[in-house]
Amino acid sequence: MKTSADIIIIGGGVIGLTCAMLAAEAGKKVILLERGKVGKESSWAGAGIIPPGNSKNTEHPGDRLRAWSSEQFPLFSEELQKRTGIDNGYFRCGGLEWLDENQVDNLVESWQREQIPFEAIEAKKGSQLWPQLDCWRLVGKERAFYFPSMAQVRNPRHLKALFSSCIELGVEVKENQERVRFQTGESSQKIIGVMNDENNLFNAEHYLIASGAWSDELTVPLGVSLGVKPVRGQIITYQLGGVPFREVILMGKCYLVPRQDGLLLVGATEEWQAGYAKEITESGREDLRQFAEKICPELRKEKIVHQWAGLRPGSSSPSCVPIIDRLQDYPEIWVSTGHFRAGIQLSIGSARYWLDQILQRPSFLPLGAFPLQGKRDDHWSPAFRS
Ligand SMILES: Cc1cc2nc3c(=O)[nH]c(=O)nc-3n(C[C@H](O)[C@H](O)[C@H](O)COP(=O)(O)OP(=O)(O)OC[C@H]3O[C@@H](n4cnc5c(N)ncnc54)[C@H](O)[C@@H]3O)c2cc1C
User: Fold this and answer.
1) What per-residue confidence (pLDDT) applies to 101?
2) What residues does ligand 1 touch, defined as CB less than 6 Å away?
3) Which pTM does this prediction carry?
């Protein structure tokens, strides 16, 4: 059986779903093929931290992508809710970021350049405003900064809303599509479609690989290595009567994310050697528990209620900018992956930038801003991480 569309998207995480939704809004016929169930991999597992941004004052494409996406989130969330009735939990909770002394100058300079509102918090003021946090005694070796416009979204709800919106807009979503692979013509390098396990062929004018940590599985048979690797991240949660602070607290690679209903997420491990094993571990739990209790000693009397793991699409590029590009030898195949720790926050901009190229219209970023590995800018370091 052969099915045709304008665009076929492989992967139903936040990237694939957002791309599918925007393309369908633009009038394109879209088929989305998902190996398992939509929105159950890395995008589900994430903490949903959305850093602030001011796209007018950004220079590096990575900063502009983060800033532009961050600016879109409020309206995008509102419109998603109008269309689907699902509240994705987006809200500007504010954030407190702790930095080592040696990171401070560079980052402060980049926030100032971008004109992002922030305030350095001294120990005395911090302990008055956030008496439940026990990290104010660290001020000296570390510095704390408050960002009023840092935000968060609840990933499972956001994905549910995106999925529902895709269905509403007529995207044909096919789940449980095992072993989807590209088919080339016998005598040429031309792609004739993607084949699923049941030998159904799907063909389109454009294909998008949005398969997260598994993206190389689809490109390697075509002779292209993206260098995207799974990087396991674990999270633990507490269910509290009420979380004693409303801000996201970030320190090093770990953070606390309080939800409005008393759920507190503590994340995340960054495990480069775990491969595709999505297991949770005792050591992951213990490291996160110790981190949580160091920041907020009250948590010693609380029980951990849940623990999970997800596989981020990491890349071998030190700066970890995503790849949003087409394959040189197969220009009908696009890739949007490698979003690593920032796929939720970058999702709206990534989808829009990709679609602008497909529709050949001007974009908020120049062509070739996130090329395939080899041509990437590895000297940039982001103003925020999550
Ligand atoms: C613990 C943790 C915390 C995080 N916290 C944050 C955060 O606070 N903020 C933030 O912005 N980001 C965060 N992230 C990162 C973010 O979740 C990822 O960057 C993002 O989810 C990547 O989205 P994706 O759509 O590329 O991948 P995924 O969500 O993994 O989706 C890829 C999809 O493709 C499907 N697929 C794979 N291969 C195939 C195939 N051959 N055929 C069909 N389908 C296929 C998979 O089944 C999957 O559904 C976090 C991640 C983790 C794990």
Assistant:
1) 83
2) 10-16, 33-36, 41-43, 45-49, 177, 180, 210-214, 217-218, 233, 235, 267-268, 310, 312-313, 337, 339-345, 386
3) 0.96
The model's pLDDT over 66-109, given as tens digits with 9 standing for 90+, comes to 999 999 999 999 999 999 999 999 999 999 999 888 888 888 99
C-alpha 348/C-alpha 143 separation (Å) is 31
Fold of 2-88+154-227+317-358: FAD/NAD(P)-binding domain (3.50.50)
Query: Is residue 344 within 8 Å of 88, Cβ to Cβ?
Result: no
Phi, psi values for residue 191, rounded to 5°? -80, 130
Q: What is the pLDDT of residue 318?
A: 66
Distance of alpha carbon 321 from alpha carbon 209, whole angstroms: 17
Taking CA 377 as the corner, what is the angle to CA 62 and CA 315, rounded to the nearest 5 degrees?
80
Nearest 5°: the CA angle 259, 74, 354 is 115
- What is the C-alpha to C-alpha distance for residues 256 and 313, in angstroms, rounded to an integer? 22
Domain chopping of the chain, boundaries: 2-88+154-227+317-358, 95-148+230-313
Mutate to test the pocket of ligand 1, among 163, 196, 211 (most ligand atoms within 8 A of CB): 211
Closest CA to 214 of 262, 260, 178: 178
State how far the Cα of 234 lies from the Cα of 279, in Å rounded to an integer: 9
| pLDDT tens digits for range 226-248 | 999 999 999 999 999 888 899 99
Q: Is the CATH code 3.40.1260.20 the one for domain 95-148+230-313?
A: no
382 alpha carbon, distance to own chain's centre = 14
10-residue stretch averages of pLDDT, the chain, 386 residues long: 92 98 98 98 97 94 96 98 98 94 87 95 90 79 91 98 98 95 82 92 96 97 93 97 91 94 96 96 97 93 97 81 93 96 96 97 93 67 75
Residue type, 126: G
User: What is the residue type of 145?
Assistant: F
What are the tokens at 59?
């220079």
